[in-house]
Amino acid sequence: MDRISRQRRSWNMARIPSKGSRPEMRVRRLLYSMGFRYRLHRMDLPGRPDIVFATKRKIVQVHGCYWHGHGCARDHKPTSSEAYWSEKIAKNRTRDERSMKLLSELGWDVLVVWECEIDRIDQLRLRLRDFLSQASQSAWTIS
Ligand SMILES: [Zn+2]
């Protein structure tokens, strides 16, 4: 039996950041089932946004509550190495803000979906539909 408790291990696993993370996959599946098509992780855009609707000039970002410091019930803080993680999360938040600002300067509308919102799927579906069916506020920038 190794020293890491099962609970601790699942905590570690849940915090491994990756592309195509579970919350993001769920939002992608939802969007797909709603008939929307998108591109993923456009390298040429600030912060490599998760889900990109190029012709609508809209972006959906899926944020894990822990990694992006949502401060909700899902955003549990570990008891050990707290300073280390807080610093990492603070960096993520700064990066998020910078990417959002740059994207909006480039004429993109961005909707952030938090991990904890994905469980309320009906509400989320409405929000996504609203966001994606509105005319882009920056439509004039499309040449
Ligand atoms: Zn949250």
TrEMBL record:
Annotated coiled-coil positions are none
**Keyword annotations of the record:** DNA damage, DNA repair, Endonuclease, Hydrolase, Nuclease
Q: Which GO terms describe its molecular function?
A: endonuclease activity; hydrolase activity
Q: Identify its protein family.
A: Belongs to the vsr family.
**Source species, please?**
Devosia insulae DS-56
Q: Which SUPFAM superfamilies does its entry note?
A: Restriction endonuclease-like
**CDD domains, A to Z:** Vsr (cd00221)
Give the Enzyme Commission number: 3.1.-.-
InterPro entries per UniProt: DNA_mismatch_endonuc_vsr (IPR004603), Restrct_endonuc-II-like (IPR011335)
One of the protein's GO biological processes: mismatch repair
Quote the function comment for this protein: May nick specific sequences that contain T:G mispairs resulting from m5C-deamination.
Q: What is this protein called?
A: Very short patch repair endonuclease
